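Think of the structure tokens as a kind of shorthand, similar to the way a musician reads notation: each symbol stands for something richer, in this case the local conformation of the backbone. In the example below we present two proteins back to back. Begin with the first one, reading the sequence and then the tokens, and try to describe in your own words what changes along the chain.
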Amino acid sequence: MSYHENHCVVGYKLTKKGERFGEVKAVFEKIDSKLYPINKKEFFCHTEKVFITKDYEEIDNKYDDGELFFLEITGDSTSGECSYISIGGKATKLGSKDAIEVIKVKLPEVTYRKIDGFNYRPATKYIFIEDDFLYGPFEYEVEENLAGGFYITLKTLAITLINKGVPKGYICKVELSKDIFTETIINGSDRKFILNVDELNNLDIENYDYRNDDLIIQEGNEILKLIGREFSKNQIRELKNDVIKIQNINQFNKETINRFFPLFEKMEEWEKIAIDMIDKYLESEQGIEYIDNYIENNKESYFKSIKNKKEETDEAYIKVLKTEVNNLEERKGALSCDIEILANEFREKKDELANVKPDESLATISKEYKEIEEAVEKFKAEHNSLKDIVDLEKHKERILWSIEEKEKKETILKKSQEELEGQINVNKNKAIEKLLELRTYIDVIYTVKNDNKTTKDYSINVCNKPKDNKSQARKEYIEHIYNVFSNNGRDYKRDEIVNLIVSIQQSFITVLAGLPGVGKTSLVQHLGKALGLDNRLLNISVARGWTSQRDLLGYFNPLNNTFQSALTGLYEILQATSIEKNAQAPIYVLLDEANLSPIEHYWSNFMIMTDDENEKKLQTGRYGEDAEIAIPNALRFITTINYDNTTEALSPRLIDRSPIIKLRPERLTNPKDKKNINIDFLAYSNQDLSNLFDVSSKEKPDLTEEEMEYLNKIIDVLHDENPEYGQPIIVSQRKQLAIARYCHIARDNMIEVSKLRALDYAISQHILPLINGSGEQYGERLNKLLEKISKNSFNLSYPQLHRIIQIGKSEIDTFNFFV
């Protein structure tokens, strides 16, 4: 057994070699239960690497880039640059007290706890913060930002990793000492670690209060339970004195009280703020829409409830009124009888008085008169009662009128109900359509599982392979496309088709630029038809306001633990074609009107894939086998852009990675002679097209002497740092390699007789798009560049540059390729 067999190191994943092999970079090794930097001079391989001979995908799927893990070495290697080997199954996660990374950054405020603009993910599960002191340990959460960096949010540990009594929510504060740190390099960045956390127990450790307001309120409430009595809000100040007097209040609890009561005094204010926020929300467009939706969804039961309640109230009121009317009718009848009796008595007495003889005694007359007078007084009293009866009659009329009005209102209410029910029936289809529109959002929230498994078949038949003679195969392929274009009345020259095919095949993304109406979109559609791509040409119309991958591809929905694909169809075609096992035909994705929104935002996850050496994989946010999608090598993005005031400018980063092809206005023609076209034409596989029209990114093909001479003159003018020429224009190594690869293929396939024809195209779409500056000095640099370009040999790029200069001078010395 070798020294390193069954030995354990700490490392991170490095590179993948094939399907199951790869390399791990070792940074520490475990000796007698402790971690030390690897000793490559005496005990370890000089490469500091371990070769994984089996199941590398377990490491690749389980660990993030730069994340540290244990790896048990299984033996020595007899070949290759790595001296030691292992397998993917021997990788395990670090323990809680193993290596912890130390990040040098200012400790965030306890109320914020977020580190902004960090440029890498920490390598360990826990971290320390190095400020004026060493603080920690912390748990943390990582969130990626739009700039390609990270946000790190700190969380205190429920139980400290250091074997000392640290209260909940507190962290350790330790004097800085170089002896406790170990430095190493991970993915090119200098990193610092504490390898053996238990050794911190030998240092002086101070407890540092890092509790947030939620924890303070929680612990404060626990302390208040010790008082044993209720209190009002007006007694808060007295309450604090009561708490302080409790016998078993320790220093920790006193610190909690000092932070808790200022928060407690604001609870009433917070309540008012919350109510105000709710009121403002209900007054906002979203709140009004929420109320309208609620009423619409519950209107049937709502109106039914109102109707029933109204009917019950009216019935009870009508019943009371009818009872009152009956009582009045009975009283009226009784009074009528009394009046009739009194009237008869009055007539009788009157007749008797008329018949009285003069000789009757005065006493008799007086008596009778008195009785009549009493009867009259009684009649007057009854007359007043009769007046009351008249008033009651009027009151009765008012009651009957009120009943009639109630009945009219009930009729109107019934009619409104019938109209509402009729309107509900009329809007039934609209309601169904609206439900269908909302179905996507409902599925996002309530669907238990949405695997986004595509059922559409994107595969197409491809020809077996091109002819052995590559030159002849290229010529026939180009001629086929030219004939298809010509027969469809599309005025494109053979050299323009060669340029288009070579540019698309050699670039992960190709930009077609031009003013509206020059035929950018139709060119791509006719090209896809000519190549026989059928449903492998996906047309995506970019909308204004796209900001991230979720608009183009979709997003991971944590509510149901699934990936919610966008409506563009890009996720479905990538999911289907990433698992194709046979020879793949090209996949063209057209981003139409791509700069209506900033491309570098919504296309950012694909930007890194423009470099061939980078792995082409997309993370979905899921776990297991669906955690990522492998991007097929056959995928190519083609974007169309307008450069007017309604669109976003292209970023320098995108221009450096893409050819920018300016299209002339398309002219429709009527071909005199129809070309013969192979109707059984089968698309070439992407691999065959790469063999015909591309060069490996690891190779730098040589330019001809004349091409190299002109290119060097151009680059010297652009890179000249003389301030008389303004800001230099840098042509990156990536651009220079793209130009060499392009010329190597295109020069022998272009028809027009010119040794510099291919370089002319390369300059127009790789170098001229870099022009973006202002000032007289910058204009002088462009004039000097124009002098280095031969008007006769560069009949494509020369007039473009001349136009840029002329328009720039008229625009107060502001020069830009996109004019």
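Once you have a description of the first chain, move to the second and do the same.
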Amino acid sequence: ATVTDTTTYTVTGGGVSIPVLLSGTGVSAPAASLTASPTSHTFGNVTVGQSSAARTITVTNGGAAAAGALAMSNGNAAEFVVSANTCGSSLAAGASCSLGVTYAPNGTGADSANLSFTFSGGSPVQVALSGTGVAPAVPNVSASPTSLAFGNVAVGQVSAPQTITVSNTGTAAATNMAYPSAPASFNRAGTCSAATLNAGASCTVIFTFSPSAAAPVSATDTITGGGSTMPIALAGVGTAAAAASLSASPTSLAFGTVAQGASSTPQRVTLTNTGNAAADGLTLSNGNAAEFVVSSNTCGTSLAAGASCSLNVAYTPTGIGIDTSTLTFAHTGGPAVEVSLSGAGGPPPVSNLAAIPASVAFGNVTVGTIASQAILLRNSGGAAATGVAVSGAGARFRINAGTCSITLEAGASCTLGITYEPTAATSDAGTVTITSAAASDIVVPLAGTGIVAPSANLKASPSFASFGKVPPGQTSAATTIAVSNTGNAAASGLALANSNGAEFVVGGNTCGAVLNPGAACEVSVAYRPSGTGIDNATLIWSHDAGGSVTVPLYGMSEDVAPPPVVGKLSVPATVSLPDTLLGLASVPQPVTLTNTGEGPVAVVSIKSANAGEFSVSGATCGSVAPGASCTFNVTFAPFGLGSRTATITVTSNADGGPQAIQATGVGLSGAPPPPPPPPYAVAAIEYYHAGFDHYFVTASSAEIPKLDSGAFAGWIRTGKQFNVYPSPSAGLRTACRFFSTAFGERSSHFYTPDAPECLTVQANPNWQFEGDVFYTRAPAQDGTCPAGMNPVYRMYNNGQGGAPNHRYTTELPVRALMLAQGWIPEGYGPVGVIMCAPQ
């Protein structure tokens, strides 16, 4: 150690001591002392493959002696590179040396190393080095989206802008960025323009589409830079520029000839804008507004794209001759639309009478019988025919004015009844002359031939029998049915057939094998049901000559406990009318009905089967209380000589109804008899409602125009129809009509010409009786119809869709189609014939 030492040395002698002070300082041997600055260094992040800036390391010998055997060692010489090393193998005392160190990582991640300086006689000096290798910085350029669809754009218009964002999500700037010019029909804008896009930066490219033609356009615009190529797909459709386009329907109206001073039926013109823009500034001009009158104009000053408007035009000529005009619809920026109008003013309307047919041929008619035909008198002119009169010539032809009167309105028709009653086997001729105030006479020739043809003619009275309600196993009161031969020959081989002898029991049969002319026989029939339900049968008397008479039988059986309180009408079996001259009418004969039952009786109808000769009037019968009576009158007006008969049917809810009264009278010679009104046919038109899936048929002249005009919405004609009679006549049956509201908006109508079925439905509270609507003939029990008649088939939809519906047709293919859809046939015979329609 470096210390100072002292001591005293004493010299003695001579008695004398002499101190001698001795002193000295010990010092260490000279040595080297090294330090490094800095003692550590961090190079931070350095990209792999690159080298950092050099860092200088200084080594200083602060000792008193030189540092010999100086040496340096490097723990990671590959990545921490030493350069410019001025330190040799010895460093003199107080001297310094230096070296440079750079960091050049060869991979990513943290690296470190120690520089160690050693020398003789001293401790090593350490310098800690560290750094992190990072990946090289690269750009990453992308564009979003890479396709733009502009849809439809009108030519000359510019679409809404759409934006593409270009982004550099890499660690280095993207250089050489290029944004080419936009393709044809596309415009480019935005913030992208510089050649360099720094890392983390973005810019926008904005496109719009402006087509020059009405066609699809597609193109590709490529963006490049930073090592990326980005194709951008552009698409759009050029469409025609928005414009209005007017069209009129129809483009011409022809009103034909219209009488001067009159007005035609209005015709409709519809204007439609089929363009894709509104037609503004819309105006209408009329070249002849005085005679072509516009009304109900819904066209304003503008018509939207796709919209329509309409107006009516009526022609009201002010003079005689041809008139024309043009309706011109003009609008802003487009061509006008024209509708040509034409018409002819005619002279004031006149009547124009015609008789159909132009001649009447009765053919062969048996002497002593009356044949009937009708002449239709039609006024097809534009004015009423006045002073109409009818006269005739021919001893055996008779004229009945029918529905014709002294005036026949324009467009109207009436009928004349013509009868031929030959008195001998000879040919007869006659004429009908029709005159009017303003037209030439119309002469209709008449011809007929009387023949003698003896034949049997069977008639039954009553024409049907209804036994009402009878409990199962019990037997009703018997009904007597009389069969008479009104012909002029015997009915030989007379035979009776009963289609349901088990339940409709025939007894007391006085009819033999031959029934002479004028003779009669009878049977007694009782109803004995075996179970509940509606029963029917048919009694058919036939003879060898092929003639027959049919009597339908009806009954209903149901369990009753206790029996209902019902009314019972006391009805006379016959009423005799006084003998009456032909051409005259008897004094009305009162007929009294008395309710002998315990309940009230509702009288539905009182009808004569021969209303032309035995007419019913003055009925006081409606609801008849127990013990009360009511009356009606019968008037006899014979059409022929000798005994005349008619069956008067009283239809009610009384026990045993309907009930028949035989009316008789004798026609005496005198004034010529008026002919009976002939039956004529009208069409029953079929309609269909798609929403209800229902069929409906009507012969009503009041309903048909409303259905055709849409007043009853949803109904359209099917093109199907059949004929019916609008007026009663001998041998015709009444068709009842009902309507039910029990099935909501899909409610339905129902027709039946079957009297018992009519009564049954009237008793059903779900069905409303609407009256007798037309007349028809009944088919035979086997479903066949008389010559000259078509069978009408009735089918029931079996309640499909929750509401019943019936369809009536004369066409077998239609019937087959409906049955294939699940409909059920109803009516007489194997195919279900409900009535017979005149051809």
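Compare your description with these statements about the second chain. Confidence is low (pLDDT under 50) at residues 671-677.
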